[in-house]
Amino acid sequence: MNTPADGTAEHAHTTAWIASVLRSRIAAGELTPGSKLSEEPLCAALGVSRNTLRQAFTTLAGESIVTRIPNRGVFVASPGVEEVREIYRVRRMIEPAAVLWGELTPGVLDELEAIVQRAQQAKDSGSVPDMADANQALHGAVVALTGSASLQELMDRVLAEMRLVFYTMASAPDFHSHYVDRNVMLVKHLRAGERQEAAEGLRAYLDEAEAELLAHLGAGRDSHSGIRQQAG
């Protein structure tokens, strides 16, 4: 029989596991913004209690990945302006640093090249979902260069939010295509040992992607206005 402490630890692990499963499904595009997360089928599929599932929902709500609507239920979130800004604040802090100081082995470089080749094939075939998948995989692999489980866990949350953001660009199918070549150049710099150039290119890439997303969300004018006021 479990002690209360053991039961609590097991419960916490189960809650974290459920949150991870749902986060992964969102990052993979299996759950889209606005989708309702119905408790009964999820409990049956995952083999957990409603209380445990609700605690996982609380975790994901704290990450802005799901939204609770009173008397209606829990839904996959639809990120807005502030969520996009926060995503890119995090990405600018960890991805260029990973490029500068992460561990690069021949095997890792081969993995990165395989991902960008997959992205190029998706671009050639016009497959937006496959370009998005490759983009997610590449940036996850970049953070994995750090060797830090904590940073990779953080990036998993960011990638789940990014997948939701990508859905806002459904009316702009070229959004992913013009970043494929940037990812190719990033990997070329890393293969050549040009870490500084890779980091600088990645920072510019992230700035441009954020600006494009904010403009698409109608925040471009406010964002630039705020920058001008701060500069003044």
From TrEMBL:
One function term, GO molecular function aspect: DNA binding
Domain spans labelled HTH gntR-type: 12-79
UniProt keyword annotation of DNA-binding present: yes
PROSITE patterns reported in the protein's UniProt record: HTH_GNTR (PS50949)
Signal sequence segment: none
Keywords: DNA-binding, Transcription, Transcription regulation
Gene3D superfamilies from the UniProt entry: GntR ligand-binding domain-like, Winged helix-like DNA-binding domain superfamily/Winged helix DNA-binding domain
SMART domains assigned: FCD (SM00895), HTH_GNTR (SM00345)
InterPro entries: GntR_C, TF_FadR/GntR_C, Tscrpt_reg_HTH_GntR, WH-like_DNA-bd_sf, WH_DNA-bd_sf
Cited PANTHER family: GNTR FAMILY REGULATORY PROTEIN, TRANSCRIPTIONAL REGULATOR, GNTR FAMILY
Name the record gives this protein: Transcriptional regulator
